[in-house]
Design a protein that fits this description.
The protein is of the alpha+beta class and 296 residues long. It has 6 helices and 12 strands.
């Protein structure tokens, strides 16, 4: 990151929050001062969003966590993912659990491996006679940062924010503020764009969102530290429309720290792995592996 650019951005944010130290009010010129503050805010938001995008374009060795909670009528979803990306070319470990005290599954992709190794959690252990399963790798066609499940959420959120800016620029919130830890950008995306991007996931047959709900602007808070490093984001809202079933959602991304080789498990021994090589069989496996209440 360019240090001069970061310092300029932090300075801009501080000017927005503490205007007395930047654009001093001048008798007879209130409009000019207000316009300057609005421009400073717009510049801070734009640069903050650029830093957010750059973080995932240039994703380094990162340990990250995504927490997703969704409540919609009979649909109640809680999912927690952690990811560890290490090295170049990278080795990637992702972990998943469906409840706060649930058992973790984990997926290991050794760099350039043609297969992913999945260690089954207790609810899905019946899917194989061994603790691990191997399947054709998600990265067979080449590695992409946005394929890492935590980064996938952020990449698709960025797309939803961008589409909302095109569709409803006058309704999208654009604000910036200094915090005790650094800096926040507050923007938004419509529920409809979030659904289209797939990270607000309710089966089509289970949802009855009204047009008003789909056009609701959901606030998005993106956080940075004092050095303008991305540290996380939060989406939290309840979407309602008269008698329609309300949607309660919460999604958080947290950069926990730097991932290292010590965070990675050893590649499992061949005797501990059931190999699934057929794509159709792999699809059937994932149908059950992603089922929250699987049946033998």
């Amino acid at each position: 990151m360019n240090i001069t650019r970061s310092a300029r951005l932090v300075g801009t944010v501080l000017c927005v929050v503490a205007a007395a130290g930047c654009a001093q009010p001048t008798t007879g010129e209130p409009v000019a001062d207000e316009a300057a503050a609005e421009q400073a805010t717009a510049d801070a938001v734009e640069r903050g969003l650029e830093e957010f995008q750059d973080h995932f374009v240039n994703l380094g060795d990162e340990h990250a966590r995504v927490y997703n909670y969704l409540n919609y009528g009979d649909v109640k979803i809680t999912t927690e993912h952690e990811s560890f990306k290490v090295g170049e070319p990278p080795t990637v470990l992702t972990k998943r659990r469906f409840t706060g005290d649930g058992d973790w599954s984990q997926t290991l992709w050794p760099n350039a491996s043609p297969v992913d190794y999945i260690e089954l959690d207790s609810d899905h252990a019946f899917l194989a006679p061994t603790p691990w399963v191997s399947v054709p790798s998600l990265f067979t066609g080449g590695f992409d940062n946005c394929f890492v499940i935590t980064a996938w959420v952020a990449c698709h959120l960025d797309a939803a924010i961008g589409q909302t800016k095109l569709d409803m620029p006058d309704r999208q919130r654009n604000d910036a503020r200094a915090t005790d830890d650094g800096f926040e950008v507050i923007t938004g995306a419509t529920l409809g764009t979030m659904v289209d991007e797939g990270f607000i996931s309710i089966a089509e047959e289970d949802r009855e969102f009204t047009d008003r709900m789909l056009n609701t602007m959901i606030p998005v808070v993106i956080r940075f530290d004092r050095e303008m490093n991305f540290t996380g984001l939060e989406i939290r809202d309840t979407v309602t429309d008269g008698d329609a079933t309300p949607l309660e959602l919460q999604l958080e991304y947290e950069v926990i720290g730097e991932a290292t080789k010590d965070d990675l498990p050893d590649q499992p021994a061949a005797a501990d792995v059931t190999a699934i090589t057929d794509q159709a069989a792999a699809g059937q496996f994932f149908d059950k592996f992603n089922d929250r209440t699987p049946e033998n």
